[in-house]
């Protein structure tokens, strides 16, 4: 049916990727991050550049996921006379019955043969092949820049709030006490506790370690 054909064509994967990308970008602007602090005093240079970079990554993603990676058609398999090429005739694909040039492969997901097949990307629902390989690498480079910049922007929001420092001190100290098999009260008031006041600073009668 139509619903199955729409979602089977990668519509759901592509939509989820685009929506999630812009949602994370919106969160970085709404949260108290470096982007928002520069936007408020009228310094839109970095926010605009970041949005443009995200836009380029989304456009490259859609282009690579929707383009023909190099599918081999029966009428234009690009075959030459074997006598002229002086090589054996390429084998025929057992699935789509077209003759496969060298370095091509049949993709089970796309159900097509692809020239200079690299791999099938499930995040794009498309193959990476002869026509799309360079664009795929460009997309990965831009996406890496977006991710690294986004992580830096997110870290500025955590540093500004400072809420993680008390949490780290509290929870980190508890993990340390758990490793010693002691409680906060025993650690803070060991000089007043009868069964601990005569123990050394590093001694714990409840520690079963050898």
Explain what the structure shows.
The chain is mainly alpha-helical and 210 residues long. It has two domains: 148 residues; 44 residues, no CATH class. It is built from eight helices and four strands. A two-stranded antiparallel sheet has the order 1-2. Strands 3-4 form a two-stranded antiparallel sheet. It starts with a helix and ends in a 22-residue tail after the last helix.
Topology:
Layout (H helix, E strand, L loop, with lengths): L1 H7 L2 H20 L3 H6 L5 H22 L15 H4 L19 E3 L4 E3 L4 E3 L4 E3 L4 H29 L2 H17 L3 H5 L22
Antiparallel strand pairs: 1-2, 3-4
Question: Main attributes?
Answer:
disordered N terminus; 2 domains; 6% strand; mainly alpha; two-stranded antiparallel sheet; 4 strands; two-stranded antiparallel ribbon; 52% helix; 210 residues
How many domains make up the coordinates? 2
Question: Element order, helices and strands?
Answer: HHHHHEEEEHHH
Main β-sheet, spatial strand arrangement: 1-2
Beta-strand share of residues: 5-15%
Q: End-to-end distance, in Å?
A: 68 Å
Report the major sheet. 2 strands, antiparallel
Short synopsis of the structure:
By secondary structure, this protein is mainly α. It has helices at residues 2-8, 11-30, 34-39, 45-66, 82-85, 133-161, 164-180, 184-188, and strands spanning 105-107, 112-114, 119-121, 126-128.
């Amino acid at each position: 049916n139509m619903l199955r054909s729409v979602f089977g064509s990668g519509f759901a994967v592509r939509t989820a990727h685009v929506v999630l990308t812009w949602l994370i970008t919106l969160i970085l602007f709404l949260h108290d991050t470096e982007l928002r602090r520069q936007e408020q005093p009228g310094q839109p240079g970095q926010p605009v550049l970041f949005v443009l970079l995200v836009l380029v990554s989304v456009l490259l993603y859609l282009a690579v996921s929707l383009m023909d990676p190099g599918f081999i058609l029966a009428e234009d398999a690009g075959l030459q006379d074997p006598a002229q090429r002086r090589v054996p005739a390429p084998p025929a694909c057992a699935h789509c019955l077209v003759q496969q040039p060298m370095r091509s492969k049949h993709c089970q997901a796309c159900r097509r043969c692809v020239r200079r097949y690299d791999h099938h990307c499930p995040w794009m629902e498309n193959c990476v092949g002869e026509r799309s390989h360079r664009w795929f690498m460009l997309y990965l480079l831009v996406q890496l820049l977006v991710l690294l910049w986004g992580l830096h922007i997110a870290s500025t929001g955590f540093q500004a709030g400072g809420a993680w420092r008390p949490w780290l001190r509290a929870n980190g100290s508890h993990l340390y006490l758990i490793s010693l098999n002691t409680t906060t009260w025993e650690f803070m008031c060991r000089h007043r506790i009868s069964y601990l006041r005569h123990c050394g600073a590093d001694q714990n009668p409840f520690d079963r370690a050898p």
